[in-house]
Amino acid sequence: MNERQKQVLAAIVEEYSKTAVPVGSQLLLEQYGFEVSSATLRNDMLALEKAGMLYQPHTSAGRIPTDKGYRFFVEEIMPDESLSLSEQKSMQKELLTLRAKHTRLGRSTAKLLSALSGNLAVAGLGDNEGLYDFGMKELLENPEFRELDELCRLVEALDSLDEKFDTILAELSQGETKIFIGKENPIAEISNCSMMVAPYENEEGRGILAIIGPKRMQYAKNKSLLEHMRKLLSASLVLIIFIR
To answer: For 17-36, what is the mean pLDDT?
Structure first.
């Protein structure tokens, strides 16, 4: 894959994440500043399709990233994204506000992560506290989940989250953020989703954070949200933010 084809893939991932509409060469030309012809872009898209990075849902439509395309984007193209200082302070303030209402930490965390990411969020201390999920409504507003079959699979998956996340947690290293895309997902019922998982540890035990959403989710943003939340929930920082 040459540099321009990487840029084409990145642009398609970005555009599709915003619109959920297959992306065509003319749109890329008009909105992403490529200084080549539409025909050249079509050739690049065809090359990416042959490489398994894109697919065309039907004739004359634009292209959509495949699981392989998303994986390449996440590992080779996606820039690191850090939360601004104001965003970090806002997260601390919101978490403190939720905790002041005497809600469990897992529930507060899931609610905040869901609100910030626009996806389904899961948080908790495994068998000790149990897992909390928040944001099913936000998830179902995405066009990918309007079919009844998809809804049924999601509900089925949520019914057995505790058991499945215990297994996932056991395989994760402390400080690791793991991204599962599509069929890589260890929860078979949500193989049409992507899932980010991050373990954390504090004086109460070892817990887990997860964001579940469509494969066109904002990977860089969600990864930064998870990693900052993990810092807030670590033993030292939890003490600091709640004393303040």
So the answer is: 92
Strands 178-181 and 131-134: unpaired
Q: Closest Cα partner for 221 from 66, 99, 70, 113?
A: 113
pLDDT of residue 242: 42
- 149 with 54, same domain: the answer is no
Residue 193: domain span: 85-243
Question: Do 230 and 172 touch, CB atoms closer than 8 A?
Answer: no
Read off the CATH number of the domain in which 121 is found.
3.30.450.40
d(CA 135, CA 191): 18
Q: Which uninterrupted H or E stretch holds 126?
A: none
| Other beta carbons within 10 Å of 211 | 32
Q: What is the mean pLDDT of residues 175-182?
A: 90
CB 210 within 8 A of CB 196: yes
Residue 120 tokens, joined: 């389904």
Residue 54, strand partner residues: 65
Segment 3-16 mean pLDDT = 96
Tell whether 10 and 116 lie within a shared domain.
no
For residue 99, pLDDT over 50 is answered with yes
- Whether residues 56 and 97 share a domain: the answer is no
Same domain for 181 and 226, yes or no, is: yes
Encoding tokens for residue 12?
């398609």
Which CATH number covers residue 35? 1.10.10.10
Tell me: do 145 and 37 sit in the same domain. no
Q: Which residue has the tokens 């959509």?
A: 64
Q: How many CB atoms are located within 10 Å of the residue 235 CB?
A: 11
